[in-house]
From TrEMBL, chain A:
The chain crosses the membrane at residues 15-45, 57-78, 105-127, 134-155, 161-178, 190-211, 247-274, 313-337, 349-373, 385-406, 426-445, 457-478. InterPro entries: DUF112_TM. It holds the Pfam family TctA. It comes from the Bacteria. Keywords: Membrane, Transmembrane, Transmembrane helix. Coiled coil: none annotated. This is Tripartite tricarboxylate transporter permease. Residues 16-431 form the DUF112 domain.
Automatic annotation (TrEMBL), chain B:
InterPro entries: BUG, Bug_dom1. This is Tripartite tricarboxylate transporter substrate binding protein. Gene3D superfamilies: Bordetella uptake gene, domain 1, Periplasmic binding protein-like II. Keywords: Signal. The keyword Membrane does not apply.
Amino acid sequence: MDALQYVLPVFAPNVLWVIALGTIGGLIIGALPGLTATMGVALLIPLTFGMQPILGLNMLIGIYIGGIYGGCISAILLRTPGTPSSAATVLDGYPLAQKGQAGKALGMATIASFIGGIFAAVVLATLAPQLASFALQFGPAEYFALALFGLTIIASLSGDVLKGAIAGLAGVLISTVGADPISGALRYTFGVSGFASGFAFTPALIGLFALSEVFVQMEKIFADEGPAMKVSGRWPSLADMKESVPALIRGSIIGTIIGIIPGTGSGTASWIAYSEARRSSKTPEKFGTGHMPGVAATESANNAVCAAALIPLLALGVPGDVVTAVLMGGLMIQGLAPGPMLFQSRPDVIVGMFAGTFVATIFMFVFGMLGIGLFSRILMIPKRILTMSIVAFCFIGSFAINLNVVDLYTMVGFGVLGYGMQKFGFSQAALCIALILGPMAEANLRRGLLQSGDDVIAFVSTPICLLFLALAALSILLPLLRQFRGQTTIATPAQ
Amino acid sequence: MKLVLTAVIAAALCGGAGVAAAQDYPARPIQVVVPYSAGGGTDLSARIMAEVFQKHLDGSTMIIRNQPGGGGAIGTSAVLHARPDGYTLGTGSQGPLALLPHYGGTDYKLDDVEFIALMGRNLQILLGCSGAPFKNFDEFLAYAKENPGKVQVGNSGAGGANQIAMQAFAEKAGIKIADVPFGGASEAMTACVGGHIDATISTPAEAKAQVDAKAVTPIFIMEDKRIPDYPDTPTAVEKGIDFTWSSWKGIIGPKGMPDDVKKTLQQAFEETFNDPEFLKRMKDMGEFVEYRDAEGYEKLARKDSKEAEAVIRDLGMYGMNAK
């Protein structure tokens, strides 16, 4: 069989060794705030120059998969999203850790990442050429509809719809800082050239989630010093698993679809998966308080994106997300231009990368499971020392990403904002979603209007647009309807 | 007395430091600021360069530092405002040097740049997208003339080199086109392959796989002569339109570096950019290396800056970001 002859080289000891190394390296990079999977891949591309394609490219894939997974470690333990794709994992992962279930939360995240990753890898290996054309259907109108749908998640995510809307709209407003996507003019930068590209995203997230939590913890530390936290176990219980199955399936499918669509990545996927898991759950009120399916949904989705984003890259030469755009550089440096022709000219590379994706996902699972005991020891550190170390990490991580001092102001500013939001019950998640999707909605709305000559009909003219717009409408109306019905049922017995 | 002594010591120290800088250069690692994210074409080229450079300047270590943001303005500004001791250099690209200052909002001008050596150019090609109503240069021009302002040409960013190049071409060809800005070259290419725009600008290397797959069609090369990879694709010049455009990158530093340090650097970079290992690795990556000395590099930058200024004024975007 042809395929087998291309798969076997991946199991050569040196290739396995390099994939393992890449996966562990990615895991560490992902767990450290300020070092993202994108940077990990980018920085190691020059190293792959002298390597055989199968060796070099699979190392990069290992870093990618390890990196996206690694983000959940710091998200769960420290409320610091190691990579933007793990921001949604904070919502339930961190409360679980606070309840003394850090080990189990990490276990669930690892299992979910594994399931999502394998699911998408199967799709990649079997259906890549067939699904790739779906990626090309996305024009401005479709992207806008998708972004709009994503933004409506805010309504279902926040308990208080009004406060959620305020936080979300504030996020959209904040995301308009920087160069106008269509005219290039600078907006709301107050003459600070460092803000010309808007607020840097990772420092903003670190401030919003991590630094704000440091402030909250400080209040508690001054009040009393609690006992060191428990970090029992590693495998989620059978009941936890059973409860998480629907979230896992949804997360894997959503991650795969979002991964295929170019220009949208694991950040978007994990938020949509989280919101879908919550919406379809029988106990939505448990989400956000440390609920296993919450972790399962986000982590299965963001790791499904990895393999899925390779689909348009390998089949069409069009990167599925930021990391695969960088990975394209890794292919170019080998003299391999990704595109439909690559399937015919170098099937060994294509099949080798498919196989490498499986291997890296399996390594990720093994290392993740083995590492849980080690990772969660972080929480044995006395709170006051841990909290101060997180402050240091917030600053180092925010600076490392662009070496731009202005990003530190961004981080501190968002830290204070996040603290205020926590205090007054505004959803930080809503703000975060708006920061991701606001720019996508704006640029595509305006690009679409520009192309259609300000004709709004263009935005409802294709089936994909209509689908997402309908989903958006449902996602706003359902919570309202439920609230309304809830009120009437409560009201009835009183009469 | 004390004051005099201090002054003498200070003078001696300064003098000593000056001599040390000249003789011992480089005594510590040389930083090259890349004003873009890690993993892009400029970044990868710079990393290959850094490795080869160390062969040509004894005892040197070269470190690449990514400082992205503001379309390259932030990193470029950091280079031009660094201490002029030869330890902070940067990659100087067309956008931040020749275009951005015209919009205002940058804290540097082209006059602040010390040019050291040109590394290479990025050739540009216009591509017809899938489903576009033209398949070659003549059809493109005829269609654009019949439908003024209807041809939608994607570019890699508002006010970026692609948009300026396309408008400069339109001006010379006597046509009107509609710019559709995207967030980066790969987004624009994706839209082109998907048929959401009519045409887009790319580099010959990046477009090669899509052209081979017949997903897009080459319209013309923005050089004065055809290039070997695209023997059947015409230039605008041969079609009677005096238009060429390429973007470029080289090595720059702040003004005021000691002359001998500058000379040492210029020579080392000249050797680096002509090193067979460097040439081979760049070629494999699809990069077009073209060494020019400091003078030639500056001339190219000034020519493009002048041409861009005219287009930017025409577009009404001149000084739009000035404080």
